[in-house]
Design goal:
The structure is a homodimer. Chain A contains 16 helices and 19 strands. Chain A is α+β, with helices and mostly antiparallel strands. Chain A folds into four domains: about 90 residues, Uridine Diphospho-n-acetylenolpyruvylglucosamine Reductase, domain 2 (2-Layer Sandwich); about 120 residues, Uridine Diphospho-n-acetylenolpyruvylglucosamine Reductase, domain 3, CATH 3.30.465; about 110 residues, Alpha-Beta Plaits, CATH 3.30.70.2190; about 90 residues, Alpha-Beta Plaits, CATH 3.30.70.2740. Chains A and B meet through strand 11, helix 8 and helix 16 of A and strand 11, helix 8 and helix 16 of B.
Chain lengths: ~475, ~475
């Protein structure tokens, strides 16, 4: 059966469209951080019709398919399982269309186009797609993951900027809702079913996106705060006054910053005395500096906040050279250099972030005294990476400790703090068991029902939503 | 059976909770503009449990139920049909909770709370819910309709500001996803199923909303444009430069403005010579005038645009006293005073609005010489009300003409211009047949599938999505 199916794929997609040699498969079998499996073959269609043909052939053969974009996800949703039976459907060759309508401020783009490629094309017209990420994913993968990023506070996530999609269902049916409509209230907004569902209901072959005018200037400051309550006060102060401009509110705990200073020689220590939290505040505007001076506005607002009683702010540093973003961007890799780690990507109501952080810290102190918390994240959106580290070699049963910590922290987040076990990374094999544990039965029933239309044989994706 | 069921409802909700006298029913049987039917009774629960009990009782009896908010919708989705067999489920007494978390900038609010009541409560803390409408709907109805309004350009529609919902399914099951999470990527975002689906899948009993800081200042200008292309150029100019502040871009055709001047004595004529289009541009910011002078910024930007070649702008008038909003707000009623009318609420890609408008105008000239087009709308979002008028008494078969015009205009919008037959009013009996004609079979199949979980007997709502 295998050969026949691969032969059918070659007949439909051409020789370039199918990879089946072990050496060619390797890079499609390994995820960015998690996920390592074995692929039966890789199908690489370059058109929507090719995607449809691939899915028809696989569906007829009863073969499972995992759609794959740039494979930059962090939950292993874009790699095959260990069975060696799954076909990887790579969108990398479906990357020709970038159809910008300048007056409409929208673009229709193929699912396989990289975010960086899209932004290069948009930049010529003064636009960008403002879902700003560390990685360089494909647009289809961004829809399937509903990526958020560091500028969500101002621009929203993919869902907020998505106007239409073209998807291919498991049996090869093409469902096109590729309009550029900002207002369209005609019943069920069915494109929502394909946002954040990791390709389980369909393969996103094309998307219509609203794009944003690029900022003409930004202003960035790093503010030392003595505790989480002070961070929240600062958030309230900048948001109330500067809501139109506030494009990032990123928070780093002392331990996370310290890891950067120790592992990145090029990043200077901004504070004389390390505060409990460093807060990176960024303003952005399309207005030129001659009309509005963002630096001046930011300094004035922060100065007023510092003069206010009980503000808990120790230092305010204005950024002249993007140094503070360097600090922020190096946190993740520095933590990985610093020891072994279990990473978290959780969210709660913003007002509960200090209490959640202290709850986790207290739990670790009591039950796991040799680990430490390195928290950082997007407090403006309620997101925090409550990463837990320990010295390499210090723990015998690493897998056991990781499982214990995940269980404990996720349970606190979801059950005690009404939070999310996956703020922005999405769902996949990496967190499938937490999805299973924390998802409402009614939602799973809905997923089974939607799946019965989109993927009745359960062949699509490497995640089980129903 | 009737009496027994009404008796059960009284037993569950108390005497105040059920209305069954003809005199009491009248105001629940008549929609704001369209929709007039007969109710079997009106259930008015004051708690989520009461809503659940109502739906259980009706479901057990096989009785259809139409949820009703403030009944301000424009597609007859909140009124019962003519059968006299439907129960109206009014949310008007489910209006106690307005639970604001100031630091989180979110509020959890009962479905029956009026928008005006919510905004009064928010104003004390400098916030508002920025989905800005002419009517005063209830929050649950706003979710079920996904209302947009005049400030969508800056703030988005309900969907963009909705964090969580509590809904009751047709059989009385309560599904609570009432979190306040701005980031929550854990698979299917099932609350989307209840947004804009007119209560067909569940009754929205509570919603968690992100709220916005209230602007400290606004600036408004009215700009005369010689044609639609000039309007689009103006949109590009203000958006590119002033995107952070742009809160409205409303367009009125000459005929629509003229109707206001003739029927509203209090509204002064702003232009010496009427242009083809009057464009109302509004900027808003939370920054005080001492930091940013919005009037000055707006004048400078518009001045630069006027000096640019071929801008097609005839007049720029700065608004000192909100007069221009008076002009805009009086359009709808003035048209109704002006003659008989068939109203449209359509959207296309913004860049196609001039071509669509000319297409409709040319069609009317050729086929219906005694009618005229009075277009106005939210060009910033691609929405336009392409209303068609004629002198009262001038047309014998009014119903026939309305049906002909609807068929023709909707077909142009959807088939020729990839647009929407309902930009913001939603779906209901008023436009059911256009929903039936223009909705993809795959989407209807999905709706049937979702309905099979949420409402297996098809008892909820007065619209048929599947």
């Amino acid at each position: 059966m295998t050969d026949a199916m691969v032969g059918d794929l070659v007949a439909a997609l051409g020789e370039r469209g199918v990879l089946s040699e072990a050496g060619d498969l390797a890079r499609y079998e390994q995820g960015w951080r998690y996920g390592h499996g074995r692929a039966r073959c890789v199908a690489r269609p370059s058109t929507t019709e090719g995607v449809a043909a691939t899915l028809r052939i696989c569906s007829d053969a009863g073969v499972r398919v995992v759609p794959q974009g740039a494979n930059t996800g962090l939950v292993a949703a874009s790699t095959p399982d260990q069975s060696g039976a799954m076909v990887v459907l790579s969108l990398e060759r479906l990357n020709q269309t970038i159809d910008l309508d300048v007056e409409d401020r929208t673009v229709v783009v193929d699912g396989g186009v990289l975010l960086s490629t899209l932004n290069e094309a948009l930049a010529e017209h003064g636009y960008w797609f403002p879902v700003d990420l560390g990685a360089d994913p494909q647009i289809g993968g961004m829809v399937a993951t509903n990526t958020g990023g560091t500028r969500l506070l101002k621009y929203g996530d993919v869902r907020h900027n998505l106007l239409g999609v073209e998807v291919v269902l498991a049996d090869g049916r093409v469902v096109s809702q590729l309009n550029r409509l900002r207002k369209n209230n005609t019943g069920l907004d069915s494109k929502q079913l394909f946002v954040g569902t990791a390709g389980a209901f369909g393969v996103v072959t094309r998307a219509a996106l609203a794009v944003a005018p690029k900022p003409a200037q930004t202003a960035t400051a790093l503010i030392g705060c003595r505790d989480g309550a002070a961070v929240l006060e600062l958030l309230g102060a900048v948001e109330q006054g500067l809501a139109d401009f506030l494009s990032a509110f990123e928070v780093m705990g002392a331990a996370a910053m310290d890891a950067v200073f120790r592992h990145q020689q090029a990043v200077r220590r901004p504070f004389d005395e390390a505060p409990a939290y460093g807060v990176l505040v960024e303003l952005a505007t399309t207005l030129p500096a001659g009309v509005v001076d963002l630096d001046e506005i930011l300094v004035a607002r922060l100065g007023a906040h510092m003069r206010a009683a009980k503000a808990g702010v120790s230092d305010v540093l204005l950024d002249a050279s993007d140094d503070f973003w360097q600090l922020r961007h190096h946190v993740s890799e520095s933590l990985r250099s610093d020891g072994e780690m279990v990473a978290f990507d959780v969210s709660v109501a913003r007002s509960r972030l200090p209490a959640l952080t202290e709850r986790v810290r207290a739990y670790l102190c009591e039950h796991h005294p040799r680990v430490w918390l390195c928290d950082y994240g997007h407090w403006g959106d309620g997101g925090s990476h409550l990463n837990v580290l320990w010295s390499r070699g210090d723990v015998a049963d690493v897998a056991g400790l990781k499982a214990t910590l995940q269980e404990a922290v996720y349970t606190m987040v979801v059950r005690e703090f009404d939070g999310s076990f996956s703020a922005e990374h999405g769902v996949g094999p990496h967190n499938q068991r937490f999805y299973d544990a924390f998802t409402d039965d009614a939602v799973k029933q809905l997923c089974r029902s939607v799946g019965s239309v989109c993927d009745p044989r359960g062949l699509l994706g490497n995640v089980q939503l129903g």
